[in-house]
Amino acid sequence: MKNWPISFHVAGIAVLTGFSLVLLTAVPSKSDANLPYEPQTLPLPELKVSEIIEDTLNTHTTAETEPAEGWTEKSVTIKRNDSLSSALERIGVGASIGFQIGKTDNHQLLTNLKVGDQLTVWVDSNNQLQRIVYAKSPILEVELASTDEGFKIQEIQKDVEIRTHTAHGKIEGAFYLAAERAGLSAKSIMQLADMLAWDVDFARELHDGDYFRVIYEARYLDGEYIGDGDILAAQITTAGGQEIHNAFVMRNGQEVIGYYNEKGQNLKKAFLKAPLDTVRITSRFNPKRVHPIFGDKRPHRGVDYGAPTGTPIKVTGNGQVTYRGWMGGYGNVVKVRHNNGYETLYAHMSRFGKYKKGQMVKQGEVIGYVGSTGNSTGAHLHYEFHINGQHRDPLKIKFPDAGPIAAQYRNDFLRRSHFLLGQLERLDPKTQLAYQFE
Ligand SMILES: [Zn+2]
User: Which of 52, 187, 215, 230 has the fewest beta carbons under 10 Å from its own?
Assistant: First the structure.
């Protein structure tokens, strides 16, 4: 194992404003003449320990009580039609206790139980209820404690340790296998493919000799790995290492807002490449096409996607539904108006989604289902893309980026992404090992 000059390690859940990474020491980035941008244009950030402490929110609260000598521990599982009282009664704790608990502050934490939930209950030698622990998740427990002032109910957030891991590898054969060999979980591989989907065609563009480098978070509880968190930064090449694609996370608190490249450009586009998940093009945009039903020359001013009746149709960009109804040969149609003079149209639907005329829709939401209504030779989606009223080929136009980083976060993003880029470049693409920094 190499002795890396950085340490990525933090206890607790890091809750950062705008963007998150815990960096203890920064070292100058090695220059790389092959990069299509200039990493040296930004000064390396001076990172102080105080920043890290400020960025770390301690959500842990301690237990009110600990099991004492002479207590008996019991376990009860919530059954259908159970109340807290009936469940406690089953293990010999008096029915009036449930009533008392119902009058305690925060009682809903313990009374909104689901079938299958498990409670651990402690009673003292007089069979008096002393403590209940309800584990809502591996990291969140509800505790009821008997105190001098009566029952007390609180949530106990366990300390989750976020460790920053890295993985990198060279692609030989399938990307998925190379990523797996490098130690990435299925979740992280999907996340990686998803965030870079606009820049990289994972099925066609990756070849042997291309490489990837990833910095991601992993979550630990009491020293045990419980799963991957967010990807913080990733780099992947195409064209045998000639083209480099970078992605850096932008977060607000713990919520991922998006991934952006080293220039702060959104990796997501304002439009999806296609309105269906599985894409089978049956007819392309063609101004000189002979019509399949009428046999005469009629331009085909959209793209047809073959798909079974009932396949969900996703709106390709954020916008407002401006038409929903029958439109002659187009059958059931939904039209959506987007920003900047863009408009999309979806035809031959078997039925509509839940969005009505005038409603706002977000990219990816289901606005209808594939069908064969109107003049149609079989189940398919006819998809049109208009810019300022002109029909355009959705397979050829260059889609605009989704919104850039808000101005007030931009400098912070550039500073952090520049640092991450330096860390990515230190990962050796020639080996298949996944390193874990301690
Ligand atoms: Zn068509």
Answer: 187
Going from N- to C-terminal start, the domains of the chain cover 9-55+161-268+408-426, 72-135, 281-392
CA 304 to ligand 1 center in whole angstroms = 5
> Do residues 300 and 312 lie in contact, with contact meaning Cβ atoms separated by under 8 Å?
no
Residue with tokens 């296998």: 177
CATH no. of 281-392: 2.70.70.10
Which residues lie across from 228 on neighbouring strands?
218
pLDDT in tens, 269-297: 889 888 998 889 999 999 887 777 777 77
Q: Do domains 9-55+161-268+408-426 and 281-392 have the same CATH topology?
A: no
pTM beyond 0.90, yes or no: no
Helices first, then strands: H and E counts in the chain: 7, 24
Which residues have C-beta under 5 Å from ligand 1, the single-atom ion?
A: 302, 304, 382
Gap between the Cα atoms of 216 and 429, Å rounded: 16
Question: Mapping DSSP to helix (H, G, I), strand (E, B) and coil, where does residue 41 land?
Answer: helix
Rounded to the nearest angstrom, the distance between the alpha carbon of 198 and the centre of ligand 1 is 25
**Which strands make up the sheet holding 140-147, listed edge to edge?**
72-77, 118-123, 129-137, 140-147, 150-157
240 confidence band (pLDDT: 50, 70, 90): confident
Among candidate residues 52, 167, 161, 159, the one with its CA nearest the CA of residue 436: 167
**39-78 core/surface letters (b: 16 or more CB in 10 A; e: else):** beebeeeebeeeebeebbeebeeeebeeeeeebeebebeb
Q: pLDDT digit string (tens) for 53-110?
A: 333 333 335 777 888 888 999 999 999 988 888 899 999 887 688 888 888 888 888 8
Q: Side by side, which strands form the sheet with 312-314? A: 312-314, 366-369, 351-352
* Cα–Cα distance, 363 to 275 (Å, whole number): 10
**CATH class for the domain made up of 9-55+161-268+408-426:** alpha beta
Q: What is the CA(296)–ligand 1 centre distance, in A?
A: 15
Contact (Cβ atoms closer than 8 angstroms) between residue 139 and residue 157:
yes
Q: Would you say residue 154 has pLDDT above 70?
A: yes
CB 219 within 8 A of CB 225: yes
DSSP, res 85: H
> Does residue 176 contact residue 24 with C-beta atoms inside 8 Å?
no
Q: Are 144 and 137 in contact (CB under 8 A)?
A: no
Residue 116 phi, psi dihedral angles, 5° rounding: 100, -15
CATH number of 72-135: 3.10.450.350
